[in-house]
Fold:
Amino acid sequence: MKVLLRNPRREVEVRGPITVMSLLERLELNPESVLVIVADELVTRDARLADTDAVEIRPVISGGAA
Amino acid sequence: MKCRVCRGPAVVDVRRHNAAFCRDHFLHHCEEQVRRAIDAYDMCDGSARVLVAVSGGKDSLALWDLLLRLGYDADGLYLGLGIGEYSDESTEYARAHASALGRTLHEVDLASDYGYDIPGAARATHRAPCGACGLSKRHLFNAAALEHGYDVVATGHNLDDEAAVLLGNVLRWDTGYLGRQHPVLPAAPGFVRKVKPLVRLGERETAAYCVLRRIDYQVEECPMAAGNRHLGYKDVLNALEDRSPGTKAAFLFGFLERGHARFTDEADIEREALRPCISCGAPTPGEVCAFCRLRERATGTAVTLESKG
Structure:
């Protein structure tokens, strides 16, 4: 599957099927710091992703402290 | 996962509540958290005119949407920071959201209205850009609220922001800042009331709120914030949260309930010693306020009594 990552924007290929949690572990991402979006819909960490899914992993951390 | 409320398929999990929600019940959860924050800290009453500090990011756009849904009279203020394409894009997100909401968006542009931008200010002062940015925002949001007659300034600071700021303040034992760190800063001569209605929502929740409401926001991080200390604190806290959900909320709300009052004396003394800036009239402990000093250094010209600001 194609996985879109942001900040910086880039795309990686990951073999499915795989759960969201396993995908995040494989990419060494903290589930607290991202949302996972498939076909414009949010998915929870137990969701199973197919090899044909287009997945966006969107960071949620903002840097401004002001 | 199933929705905690209706047992339908969940779309978001919130581990610190040991819960997951479907779309509708998550949106309701967000409204309830904002309503509870406003009530718990007596942020503002229903008749208040609220000015939302709008950046084009998820927090401020979600906040504006939530306040209107809760029945508040809320307009927006966008501050153009002059950070290249990043600022150009954020302007468009802020304007599009204002248009979708059908509300007024006031706009202030640092370069054209005050003669400097954030990258220039950072170079001129040899300090981190986030410092100049925060100082400019605090001053100008307050000034705009006073100018346009708003009762309250609402900012999009969320639970993660506040926990990270608290961690930084504790690590340095900055007692003055600890005394001022609260979801409400009351009005005082020269200061409009300032509130943080998202303090009970994590930034993962505000981002999910925007995705579910189809609010288009600026996902890209500010290029000037990359690698800053605040982001480091968030990384540390999120590592703790992943191992022990609820840590960030316990840290922040434990401080607000049991720690904050121990530090307010110093903040009260500092506030009582404020007097009007000789240049712009804003409250300051010295003769010239920090904003006017920043502007002076950034523009390379002395700030006069007639100058804007």
Chain A touches chain B at residues 6-7, 9, 30-35, 37, 41-46, 58-66 (CB under 8 Å). The first helix of chain A runs from residue 20 to 26. The longest strand of chain A covers residues 54-59.
